[in-house]
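Consider the tokenized backbone below.
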């Protein structure tokens, strides 16, 4: 019996992936930090498919001991899919960080995801599809969102690198770079401030999950959900970096988000 491991399953996007994988008939191994949230999620999913094989294990991806406990629990299983969704989009000037916040954000967004890749590759079924949820933010130099965009940029780079290393071995790696997704209330507030652009570009978690799974099925190495986001992603390559960086700094200077 093979499993689909989803990190950040208790969040908005993670839940959408769990529902879609359940609809596909996959066996689920779900993780997030909160045991209560995982129990509620598992209960809700079982209502939809009572015969589903669903396992959960709470894990703080920023803590290697917590990851080791998960690897102990899942050590006898085989994985045909890994979806690294967990992430912390803390957004503020670098001067406002302290050591604890810095290591938490980097470990949750990058180290935890990479560690999960290693674990699932070593415990893979005949084939393994990995989806790493990065962000379109990782494609840019982003003042006032520097740690998040650097971590997501590194996750994209890592995904593309191992996609090549494991080519023709049955391991497919897809980096997904979403723009804004209709999720937490603070993200919804941000989308509203974007006016018409927000309406056009922001996608639902269900849209991102379905399209990302299809991109993985097609063996894509990098996928940007939504036509508008794709256009910006490609067109912005023609704008000089210094210009983009100044525009982004101006846009983000006043924004602060620290919900974790
Ligand atoms: N929302 C957007 O507009 C947007 C855009 C681009 C990319 N993304 C990326 O999409 C992913 C999901 O976003 P979302 O909007 O669904 O976020 P969310 O609802 O805030 O969910 C975040 C998830 O990550 C988990 N998590 C956070 N820190 C963790 C840690 N240290 N260890 C284990 N799990 C941890 C949370 O688990 P608990 O609930 O158990 O704490 C939760 O399940 C993130 O990687 C984010 O960067 C989001």
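A designed sequence for it:
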């Amino acid at each position: 019996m093979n499993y689909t491991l989803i990190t950040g399953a208790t969040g908005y996007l993670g839940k959408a992936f769990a529902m879609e994988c359940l609809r596909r008939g996959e066996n689920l191994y779900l993780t997030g930090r909160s045991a209560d949230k995982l129990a509620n999620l598992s209960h809700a999913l079982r209502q939809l498919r009572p015969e589903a094989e669903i396992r959960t294990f709470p894990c703080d991806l920023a803590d290697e001991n917590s990851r080791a406990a998960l690897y102990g629990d899942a050590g006898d299983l085989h994985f045909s899919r890994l979806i690294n969704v967990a992430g912390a989009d803390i957004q503020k000037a670098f001067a406002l960080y302290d050591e604890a916040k810095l290591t938490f954000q980097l470990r949750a967004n990058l180290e935890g995801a990479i560690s999960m890749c290693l674990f699932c590759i070593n415990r893979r079924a005949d084939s393994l599809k990995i989806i790493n949820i990065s962000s379109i933010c990782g494609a840019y130099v982003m003042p006032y969102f520097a740690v998040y965009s650097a971590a997501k940029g590194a996750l994209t780079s890592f995904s593309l690198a191992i996609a090549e290393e494991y080519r023709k071995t049955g391991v497919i790696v897809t980096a997904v770079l979403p723009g804004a997704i209709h999720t937490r209330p603070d993200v919804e507030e941000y989308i509203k401030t974007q006016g018409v652009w927000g309406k056009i570009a922001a996608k639902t978690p269900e849209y991102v999950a379905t399209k990302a799974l299809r991109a993985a099925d097609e063996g894509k190495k990098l996928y940007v959900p939504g036509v508008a986001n794709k256009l910006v992603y490609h067109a912005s390559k023609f704008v000089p970096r210094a210009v983009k960086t100044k525009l982004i700094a101006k846009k983000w200077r006043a924004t602060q988000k620290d919900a974790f």
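The pocket of NAP is lined by residues 8, 10-14, 32-34, 37, 59-62, 85-89, 108, 133, 135, 178, 180-181, 183-184, 187 (CB under 6 Å).
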